[in-house]
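A quick aside before the break. I want you to see a complete sequence-to-structure record at least once, exactly as it would be stored in a machine-readable document. Don't worry about memorizing anything.
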Amino acid sequence: MSVPAPVMRTIGILGGIGPQATMDLEARIHRVAQQVVKQHANTGYPPLLTVYMRHPPVLVSSDGKPLAPLAIDPRVLDTARRLGEWADFIVIPSNTPHLFLDPIHKASGRKIISIIDVTVEALRSRGADAVGLVGLGIPQVYVDRLRSEGLRAITASQGARDALDRAILRLMEGEDTDDCRNAAGEAVEEVRSAGAPVTVLGCTEIPLLLGEAAEADDLINPAQLLAEAAVRFALEGSSG
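That is the input. The structure line, written in tokens, reads:
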């Protein structure tokens, strides 16, 4: 007689801001589950519900630029509310929405496992006093948190950041070219050369652009950390 799969909490993914990054997180969650849960056919995986939003997470002008000061798009909160009706907890495979975690939590009524929190926890274990940071522009949500942790952020030059920004947006649009991948690699090499002992891939598209290079020991992939944390928390609610 086969052993019944454990009953686990349902993961809700508030995704779509980066379509490819959302699909990547789904795949990572499945791979992590395969490593820690006994599989039988399609059982052994946490229940998973994903919503793909098709708009920016913040209010933008008619030309698509974020309005200042940044304000969350109300559609994010409406989607979080509906997702919370099904999911036991929520993860978000995008960094910018984490600037608005409190209203998202309030709207959903569910625990949110923060990609920023799991990344900072990993950084603490490294014991570094400076951290390389690459992302879309300079990811303020990481800069602020690193500063509060007493860590100095090392970023790439403006030219490298601009090239990486274009590559990230092109990947979201379905392009994955050598130019895009090279832009990601060059930004990472810049912060390495500037003395970063460890670098946070602060945009969930960057590991997709780097490919196998994203597995380097001095790179931290927040999406992988989020997948691992999501599966752990799903299992904590298991029975049987």
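Two observations worth writing down. The chain has nine helices and eight strands. The mean pLDDT is 94. We'll return to this after the break.
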